[in-house]
Amino acid sequence: MNTITAILVLCSSFCFAQQNQDIEKPIRNLFLGMKNADPELVKTAFAENAVLQTITKDGTVKSDNIQEFIGTVSKFTKGDLDERIVVEAIHTDGNLASVFTPYSFYLKGKLSHCGANSFQLVKQNNEWKIQYIIDTRRKENCKEIK
Fold first, then answer.
1. pLDDT tens readout for residues 93-146
2. Distance CA 111, CA 144 (A)
3. Per the domain annotation, does 114 fall within a domain?
């Protein structure tokens, strides 16, 4: 009985780890595309009608246009944009995933700001896509993420 339990635990751990990698893939591609100044890779991370928002210091929620954001990436040189994240939590229910990631953002090698991202992802055609991002941004109390 203990051997069967151990095998089941091992198999479920592997399946859970693989699911998390699949969920993280568009998030990792977003930041890799930014770092490589590759708007096409950035575009693949998003669902068709994705939403991008930021919470300002005074609590106002500011919306950004995804297509404009993708276009901005192409205006930089490889290595100029470097957002480093730590995945703190992933929650799923069917075709919905929620991912929380503190981050540090570097512009041309210099720490620019930090905060946290909250991603909502949807699974469409067996592929996870970012449907919604909301983030915070601050310049104080930033911890560098390697």
1. 999 999 999 999 999 999 999 999 999 999 999 999 999 999 999 999 998 888
2. 8
3. yes
Q: Which domain holds residue 15?
A: 2-136
For residue 143, being part of any structural domain is answered with no
The helix, strand and coil proportions of the chain, stated in percent and rounded to the nearest 5, come to 35, 40, 25
Instruction: With respect to residue 145, please indicate whether it lies within any of the assigned structural domains.
Output: no
Total count of domains within the chain: 1
The residue whose two tokens read 């950035």 is 42
pTM of the model: 0.86
Q: Please, is 108 exposed, middle or buried when counting C-beta atoms within 10 Å of its C-beta (0-12, 13-18, 19+)? A: exposed
Give bridge partners of residue 53 from the DSSP assignment. 63, 134
- The tally of CA atoms less than 13 A away on the side-chain side of residue 120 is 10
Q: What is the DSSP letter of 119?
A: E
Q: What is the CATH number of the domain that holds 94?
A: 3.10.450.50
